[in-house]
């Protein structure tokens, strides 16, 4: 057996937290991700199966939903027509893509995404000041649960509003985690320093 | 330039990548008798209009959908944006 040491996307043994005046940037490593694309002609079956699995109806363009099943929290956000990203607790769903593929059968194509992304949760009164300097999204107009793909500091990723004007999630590619973190921290320093 | 995405609303053209003439959707049947001639025309022959032009754009920094954008090549005014998927299906393509 390989004896591997788990590292966070930033390379630490534990997720990194950066505190600023009115802003917290927290690396998140305890969520599993999988992408689900409904196959042509099987959209209704796929959506019905997922509704039972995550406890919520799949969202439309630019939106997300949260659900819970048997005490576990789930979320899903729209990424493309008939395609969603499913977010679940990593401890309970380390093999999320495998579990979903088994449940969905031929109705959808599922791909593992957990290891492809890094996640930073941004929270605080200055969060919009930070994001409006990094991306072209009108962050102050983003409503509860709004999700959009964008480029932050020229790094592509998803921006997910969890509390308008207060709490946002940034998903970026894991291979660019340190560059993205650098952009977030430098910008946070410049607005709070 | 702003492209009005049919699903996501107005988005900056910087989020998109341009491919070319929307006639690229009409890929010839490679098994047809006249396939060689049809593919020559498909690859090399393009109209070059001064005016309305239908073209394919890819929403790379977005939902990664292909769009058919009708743009005036003299003014850059965009008069219509459709999902390429819908355009292809309307022409009888299955997917």
Task: Give the topology, please.
The complex is a heterodimer of chains A (193) and B (95).
Chain A: E1 17-20, E2 23-28, E3 31-38, H1 43-54, E4 64-69, E5 72-80, E6 83-89, H2 96-104, E7 108-112, E8 117-123, H3 127-134, E9 147-152, E10 155-163, E11 167-173, H4 177-192
Helix pairs in contact in A: 3-4
Chain B: E1 2-5, E2 9-12, E3 17-21, H1 35-44, E4 52-58, E5 66-72, E6 78-83, H2 84-90
Antiparallel strand pairs in B: 1-2, 3-4, 4-5, 5-6
Q: List the domain count of chain A as a whole number.
A: 2
Total strand segments of chain B:
6
- Summarize model confidence as the mean pLDDT of chain B: 93
Q: Taking all residues together, what is the mean pLDDT of chain A?
A: 95
Looking at how many chains there are and whether they match, the oligomeric state comes to: heterodimer
In a nutshell, what does this entry contain?
Chain A is α+β, with helices and mostly antiparallel strands. Chain A has helices at residues 43-54, 96-104, 127-134, 177-192, and strands at residues 17-20, 23-28, 31-38, 64-69, 72-80, 83-89, 108-112, 117-123, 147-152, 155-163, 167-173. Chain A is built from four helices and eleven strands.
Which terms would index this structure?
heterodimer, A: 193 residues, alpha+beta, Gyrase A, domain 2, Alpha-Beta Plaits, 2 domains, 6-stranded antiparallel beta sheet, 5-stranded antiparallel beta sheet, 4 helices, 23% helix, B: Folate-binding fold, two-stranded antiparallel sheet, 18% helix, 35% strand
Describe the structure.
The complex is a heterodimer of chains A (193) and B (95). Chain A folds into 2 domains: 17-29 and 116-192, Probable tRNA modification gtpase trme, domain 1 (Gyrase A, domain 2); 31-115, Alpha-Beta Plaits. Helix content of chain A is 23%, strand content 38%. The radius of gyration of chain A is 17 Å and the shape is globular. The relative contact order of chain A is 0.18. Chain A has helices at 43-54, 96-104, 127-134, 177-192; strands at residues 17-20, 23-28, 31-38, 64-69, 72-80, 83-89, 108-112, 117-123, 147-152, 155-163, 167-173. Chain A is built from 4 helices and 11 strands; from the N terminus they run E-E-E-H-E-E-E-H-E-E-H-E-E-E-H. Chain A has 193 residues and is of the alpha+beta class. In chain A, strands 1-2-8-11-10-9 form a 6-stranded antiparallel β-sheet, covered by helices on one side. With 95 residues, chain B is α+β, with helices and mostly antiparallel strands. Chain B has a single domain (2-90), classed as Folate-binding fold, CATH 3.30.2270.10. Chain B has 2 helices and 6 strands. Chain B has helices at 35-44, 84-90, and strands at residues 2-5, 9-12, 17-21, 52-58, 66-72, 78-83. In chain B, strand 1 (2-5) and strand 2 (9-12) form a beta hairpin. Chain B is globular and about 45 Å long. Chain B starts with a strand and ends in a 5-residue tail after the last helix. Chains A and B meet through strand 5 and strand 9 of A and loops of B.
């Amino acid at each position: 057996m390989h004896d591997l040491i788990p590292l966070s996307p930033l390379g630490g043994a534990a997720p990194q937290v950066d505190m600023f005046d009115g802003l917290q940037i927290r690396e998140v490593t305890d969520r599993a991700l999988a992408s689900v694309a409904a196959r042509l002609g099987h959209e209704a079956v796929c959506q019905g199966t997922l509704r039972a699995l995550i406890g919520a109806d799949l969202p439309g363009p630019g939106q997300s939903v949260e659900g819970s099943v048997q005490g576990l929290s789930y979320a899903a956000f729209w990424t493309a027509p008939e395609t969603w990203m499913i977010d679940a607790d990593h401890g309970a769903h380390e093999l999320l893509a495998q579990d979903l593929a088994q449940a969905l059968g031929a109705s959808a194509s599922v791909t593992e995404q957990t290891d492809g992304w890094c996640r930073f949760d941004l929270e605080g009164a200055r969060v919009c000041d930070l994001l409006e300097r990094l991306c072209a999204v009108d962050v102050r107009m983003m409503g509860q649960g709004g999700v959009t793909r964008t480029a932050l500091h020229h790094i592509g990723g998803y921006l997910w509003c969890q509390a308008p004007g207060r709490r946002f999630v940034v998903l970026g590619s894991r291979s660019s985690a340190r560059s993205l973190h650098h952009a977030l921290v430098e910008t946070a320093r410049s607005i709070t320093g | 330039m702003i492209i009005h995405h049919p699903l996501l609303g107005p988005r900056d053209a910087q989020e998109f990548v341009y491919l070319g003439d929307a006639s690229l959707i009409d890929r010839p049947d490679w098994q047809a008798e006249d396939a060689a001639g049809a593919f020559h025309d498909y690859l090399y022959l393009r109209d070059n209009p001064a005016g309305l032009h239908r073209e394919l754009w890819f929403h790379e920094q977005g939902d990664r959908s292909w769009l058919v954008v009708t743009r005036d090549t003299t003014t850059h005014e965009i008069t219509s944006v459709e999902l390429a998927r819908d355009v292809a299906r309307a022409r009888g393509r299955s997917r």
